[in-house]
Design brief:
single chain; 149 residues; alpha+beta; Alpha-Beta Plaits; Gyrase A, domain 2; 2 domains; 4-stranded antiparallel beta sheet; 4 helices; 25% helix; elongated
Length: 149
C-alpha cells in the first residue's frame, strides 16, 4: 500500500521558440527539466531554489530567444507523492498512463485531470493544477488505496 505525501515544489515555465529550447542548457540546483510541449519547458525544483532556477532559465533562454517568457508558476501546481514499492500499481487505479521510467515523466489524464507524473527514487510524483489537488488526493486514497501520512 503506497503512502501519499505532500511534496512542496517550485515550478518554473519557460516558453520559447522550439530551436531555442532545443539548445537550452538545463538549470542547476537539482531542477528537473520537463519538455511538456514543443515550445514549453517546465523546471521542477525544491521551493528554496525556485527563484535561482527562474533567473538561470531567464538568462540562458533570452540569449537564444529574446521573446522568451520565463515565469514562476509554483502557486498554480500541487505535487502529491505516491511513495513505496506499490506506487506504480496505485497509479494504475488512477490513470491509463504507463508509469515513467527512471528519471522520466509522462503527462496525461490522472483521475480525469491533466497531470504530469514524474519518477522519483521512492515512487512517483503527481504534478496537478492546484485547484485539482484535493480531488486527486481523494481519488488516490479512495481508488488506489493510498495511505495519507
Amino acid at each position: 500500500m503506497p503512502e501519499l505525501r505532500e511534496r512542496p515544489v517550485g515550478v518554473i515555465v519557460c516558453a520559447a521558440d522550439p530551436p531555442a529550447l532545443d539548445r537550452l542548457v538545463a538549470p542547476g540546483h537539482g531542477a528537473r527539466t520537463l519538455r511538456v510541449a514543443p515550445d514549453e519547458t517546465m523546471a521542477v525544483v525544491a521551493p528554496a531554489f525556485a527563484e535561482d532556477v527562474r533567473r538561470e532559465l531567464h538568462d540562458r533562454i533570452t540569449a537564444l530567444d529574446d521573446d522568451a517568457l520565463v515565469v514562476d508558476v509554483s502557486d498554480g501546481w500541487t505535487a502529491i507523492a505516491l511513495v513505496g514499492p506499490d506506487a506504480d500499481h496505485a497509479l494504475s487505479y488512477l490513470s491509463a498512463l504507463e508509469p515513467p521510467t527512471a528519471d522520466g515523466f509522462v503527462q496525461g489524464d490522472v483521475s480525469r485531470v491533466a497531470a504530469k507524473v514524474l519518477r522519483e527514487l521512492d515512487g512517483l510524483l503527481l504534478l496537478v493544477p492546484a485547484y485539482w489537488g484535493e480531488h486527486v488526493r481523494a481519488r488516490a486514497i479512495e481508488d488506489a488505496g493510498a495511505v495519507a501520512t
